[in-house]
Each structure stands twice: as structure tokens, then as C-alpha cells.
Amino acid sequence: QDARESHSSALAHTRVGMAPLDVVVPRRPPPQAKPPLSVSSKDMERIRRVFDEDVAGKKFASIVSPRRDAVIFRNSEKHTKPCECIVELYELLWRWGHRGSENTGFAKNFGFAIPDTIVVVKGKPYAWYFISKKDGSLLRKSEGNLQVSSIEAKLCRERPKERSRSKEETFDEEEDERACACATWMPMSSPFPEARCHSQTVEFMNVGRTRHLLQTMSSQGLSGIIQAFVEPHGISNFLVRTVQYKGQTSLCVRTNRSLLMGKDMNHFPRCVTFEGWEGLSSSCSRYRNHRHPHMEELILEAGSLLSQQIERERVRDMLFLKDTEHIALHFKVTSDHMLYFIYGSVVPEREVILQTRPQLLMGDSCMTEALPCQALLPGGADRQAMPHQPPACLRRHTEKLQAQRALIAIGDREEREPRASARQTSVPPLPPLPSGESSRASASRRRALSARRTSQESTILPRMGYAFPEVPDCPFHVTATGPLADTSKYEYAPPGADPSTLRRPLITASSALSARQPEALGSMSYRLERATT
């Protein structure tokens, strides 16, 4: 009750669902941050396996394979697939709307409405749900008003909006009734095989087909719903599916690739979305429209609210669903900013996981756990980029350019300043240089400063906190006398020389110096020359 009251107050504040075309609907407040998704490691492994199988199974962005898709596209009999609706949801919505509430309008309380829906069981009308034009509440017709004639008058009388025609195009009422879809037939989903319909495919009907179904449904023993077709917002039919998995609600918009209005009598290829082959429509994980920018948030809130109510009413237990089966809710938006609930169906867990992929990826361990050794990454730890500030590398580069510009400006200012007329020294002043030589001299001086500065800063060696250590000299010196004097300038000693005779210590005792031979003292000039060079 508290969740419903808060939801109704928010919808009443934004005038969602009741705004005319000329009224600008204000933007809804930003949604609150949701808690992070918690998925166990076992479930995440299964989810990753589903993602990998889906990517590996689609070759060249096809549904099955390029060849198989071309075969299915040409064969119209393969466009259909089993699709059944949960008729118990309409009973749930009717009971839900009649619980204690100050506002009786169903759309104002829950954010969406439902079109005229007739539940058929064993070929007989069982219930008729509709929105009251008086106060907007969700009502159900009495048993006395469940007549086939009343249903035919309601569905076949209210034709959809006429498409735009040129002045030269003639209007044929019979042709227009055959080309426009006015109702939809959907079989009923049931855990008991005897309660199901013999045909599990959806059918989009025009006026003639609707009348024929109403006349023959008792003899065929059909079970399902007959629903008034809702004109979508746009030129193509679309549906918005919402599912809830691991506490996260996601949506998927599927739009038909064909124009809704056409002269083709077969309405299924022009109206099918989730009810048929995926190649006839395109999917998108976001709903974007400038006419109602708030609609995506409203769809998510409505889907989450209805999913919570289904969980409280234990509809899964009522339908005997397995753990790998989930309930998907389908909505549609009209051109007058109205959100309609169309039907609910049972979908396998694989489709639910693929639709909730963006939310599940954010709950993966690689996104939630701390990254090992993250301080080694550029920009990590204390070197992170501060908000509204450039990175440190860009800031250092900017400071370097500013310092260079400052030095150049100082040099130019010194050149422009007039020389002092009175000099303290007795040296006469130098004559002024020509303009060309002066500019070259200043340029050479600037290049010298920049060259010295570059040699100090542009280096790949790290800057240490201590001075460069003193390296001692070599403990021995190579001496050469006689025929080896000419070969000492080479890097390597001659082949016949003994290294022990060429090496002499740099520090010797005085006794050793006095005992030297005269020929050894003759090489002193050579050692001095080597030391100076």
C-alpha cells in the first residue's frame, strides 16, 4: 500500500499518462542509486556460459546462420512461433485496482492502463476487462453483458485512425477495413494440456477475421484472449518487454521492420514483434523518444511494481513454473503518451539472461572486486586525476612551456630597454649592432639557454635524492717504453706483450722510485702527456 501511494503521488506530480499533445511533460527526478548486484560465483559461471553460447552461435550477426535466415525469410509459414499469454494477470490487475485507494483512476495509481480484453474459455466469453471513460478505473463487465454481439460491436465499430492520403487517392471503406488490424487473438497459457488451445500462435485480425472468429470460437473450443489492437506511437508496431532477474528490472524494445499501414491482407508480418521470428523485427535495450523522454523510467517502474505484485500473489506457484522459467511483461506506448499493458507470457531463463546482460555484467566479480596491483596502473593510487583538473603530465608540460615563454620575454625586455647613458667603468660603450646581427645574437643566446635547459631536463635517467658519487681512478697505469711506445695508443696490447710488465701502480714507495732504472724514468713525459689528454 505504501509503495502504491508513493508511486501514485509521483505519477500525479508529473502528469504521466494524461498529458495532451500540446502539454510539455516535465522531466521526472533522477532515479535513486540501486544497490550493487550480488551474484554468486556459481550463477555467474552459468551466466557467462550463456553469453558465450549466444555469441558463438550467431555467425556474421545472423539469427541462426545467413543461409538459414534467408530460407526462413522467404517462407511465411515459418514466421510464427508458439506464444501464449497468462490470462490470470488481468484478474490480478482488476483485484489490485479495487483495493483501498483515494484515487480510483487505474492509470493514475499504477502508471499504465489496459485495452479492452475479453477472456475466452472453451469457446465462451468468461470476462471482459476495460477502462472506464468516466473515472478511469479498471472494470469488468457483468455476466449478462458478455454477449458476442456486444463484443463484435465494440471491436469492429471502433476502427483505428485513418492513415494520411493524398487528394488523388480514393477511399475504399471495405479495403480499409481489410487492411487495418482491429483486434488480436492470443492463446491461453496453462500447465494443463487439456486447457490449452490447439493453436499456440498469435493472430492479428481485421474486421472480417474478427467477426469470423467470434462466430466460430464456440465450435472450435478456443481458450485465450481477444484484445483490441492498440495503435502504437510511430509508423511501425512495437512492444516493450520487461523482465526481473536477480532483483534487476530490464527492458527490451522490439520494433517491426515493416510499416504498420499497408494494403497487404496478411497482418502478421506487419504487426508481429515478440510473437514471431526475430528476423521480422529489430531489438533495442533502451526506449528513447523526444515526445515523452520520461517513458523509459515509467516503464521500468511499472514493470518492477507489477513483478513485485506477481511475486506476492504467488502467480508462479499457480502456474507451476520451473526455476528456469520466468514471467515477462509486455507494454506499448501510444501517440497520446499513454502506456498500455498488453499481455504477460512465460519465457525461458536464457532469454531473460540475455536481456538483463548490461545489469549482470556490472555484478561480475571483475567489476566489483578490487583489482590486484592497481597502484601500478597509470593514474592509479595517489596519481589519480583530480576532478576539474588536468592530468599531472599535462600540467607539467604546461608549466614547462610557461617557464620557457617567461625566459624569452625577459630576454626580449632586456633588448628593448635603453642602455644606460652613464657608465661606472672607464671602458667606452660598444657601438650598437645592426638590426639583423642583433636579432641573430639574441636568437643564439636564447638557443643556448634552451639547449642547456633541455640537456638538464630531457633525460630518461631517474632523478635521485643524493649527489652523484665520486668514482676513484684506476689503480694501475699502462706504461710503454722502447718498441711498445708506438703500440700503446691502440686499445688492445700487441700479441707478444706480457700484461704484467705493462701495468705499473700509480702509488709507489720512495725507495721504489729511487731504485728505478734510467730507461723507466724516460717514460715520464709519455705518462704526463696521457694524463693531460
Can you describe this structure?
This protein has 533 residues and is an alpha+beta fold. It is built from 20 helices and 13 strands. The chain has helices spanning 2-14, 41-57, 66-74, 88-97, 106-110, 148-157, 173-179, 207-220, 268-271, 295-312, 315-319, 349-355, 357-362, 365-368, 392-416, 435-457, 499-502, 510-514, 518-521, 524-532; strands at residues 117-121, 124-131, 138-140, 183-187, 203-205, 224-228, 238-245, 248-256, 281-284, 325-333, 339-348, 476-478, 503-505. The strands form three sheets. The protein has a six-stranded antiparallel beta sheet, with helices on both faces. A hairpin with a 5-residue loop joins strand 10 (325-333) and strand 11. Helix 6 (148-157) runs antiparallel to helix 8 (207-220).
Top keywords for this entry?
533 residues, alpha+beta, five-stranded antiparallel beta sheet, 20 helices
Q: Structural class of the secondary structure composition? A: alpha+beta
Number of strands: 13
Describe the largest sheet.
Answer: 6 strands, antiparallel
Helix content: 25-40%
Into which percentage range does the β-strand content fall? 5-15%
Uncertain residue segments: 6-31, 160-171, 448-460, 510-522
Order of strands across the biggest sheet? Answer: 3-2-1-6-4-5
- Nearest-angstrom radius of gyration? 44 Å
Helices and strands in order, then pairings?
Blueprint: H1 2-14, H2 41-57, H3 66-74, H4 88-97, H5 106-110, E1 117-121, E2 124-131, E3 138-140, H6 148-157, H7 173-179, E4 183-187, E5 203-205, H8 207-220, E6 224-228, E7 238-245, E8 248-256, H9 268-271, E9 281-284, H10 295-312, H11 315-319, E10 325-333, E11 339-348, H12 349-355, H13 357-362, H14 365-368, H15 392-416, H16 435-457, E12 476-478, H17 499-502, E13 503-505, H18 510-514, H19 518-521, H20 524-532
Antiparallel strand pairs: 1-2, 1-6, 2-3, 4-5, 4-6, 7-8, 7-10, 8-9, 10-11, 12-13
